[in-house]
Amino acid sequence: MIANFYYPPNRRAFDDLIGIWLPRLAHLDAVLVIAGFGSESLPRVPGVEIIGEVRDVDEFYDRVDFALSPILLGGGMKVKVVEAMAFGVPVVASNHSLDGLPPAIQQACLTLDEFLRSDPLHRHDPRMRIDVAEELDQFTIESFATHVADLWNGRMTLSKSV
User: Fold this and answer.
1) Would you give the DSSP letter of residue 141?
2) CA of 151: how far to CAs of 99, 135, 148, in Å?
3) Where do the domains of the chain lie, and which CATH numbers do they carry?
4) C-alpha separations of 111 from 55, 95, 98, 108, 160 in Å
5) CB within 8 A of 11, min separation 6: which ones?
6) Cβ neighbours, 10 Å, residue 111
7) Going by C-beta distance under 8 Å and a sequence separation of 6 or more, which residues neighbour residue 119?
8) Looking at the DSSP assignment, which residues form a beta bridge with residue 92?
9) Do the Cβ atoms of 49 and 34 come closer than 8 Å?
10) pLDDT tens digits, residue range 66-118?
C-alpha cells in the first residue's frame, strides 16, 4: 500500500489493512510493504515493512507483487488503483476503492475474497487486457495533453466564429 498517511481516510485504510486484511492474508506468509508520506510514523506491526517516503513510485511498485487498496472513506477516483495498474501491478481493492473508475479497470481489480480464492502467487499484468490498457491510457500525460489541446482548439474555433 502506498499513500499519503497524513490524509485521514488513508490512515483509516492502514488501520483496516492491519486489523481486517492482514489476519486474512497471514496464511500467505507474505510481507506487506507500506510506503508514502507519513508512513514512517505508522505503528510497527509484524509482517509489515514500512519503507517511508519513496523518491520515485517505481521503487515501490518494483518491490510488490500486488497493490492493496483497502480504502473505505474519501471521495473521487482512487488514483492509487490506476497508478498501480499503470505500473503493471494487479490490485486487490475494497468496493469503495473502485468508485469513479472506468468499468474495465473496476472489473480487473480483485476483492479481498476473490484474491484469497485465487492463486495469490500468480501475478498478472492488468495491462494485458486490451480494455484495461485502453482505459488506463486516458490517465497518461499524453492523453491529458491531447484532451486539453482539443478543448482549447474547440474553444478557439468557437470564439473565432462568433
Assistant:
1) H
2) 26, 20, 5
3) 8-156 (3.40.50)
4) 29, 7, 10, 10, 51
5) 5, 38
6) 14
7) none
8) 68, 110
9) yes
10) 999 999 888 766 888 999 999 999 999 999 999 989 999 999 999 999 999 88
Q: What is the DSSP string of 32-52?
A: EEEESTTGGGSPP-TTEEEEE
Burial class, 19, CB count within 10 angstroms (exposed 0-12 / middle 13-18 / buried 19+): exposed
Closest residue by Cα to residue 97 from 75, 125, 123: 75
Cα 126–chain centre separation: 12
The model scores a pTM over 0.90: no
For the chain, give the number of residues.
162
Angle separating helix axes 130-137 and 79-86, nearest 10 degrees:
120
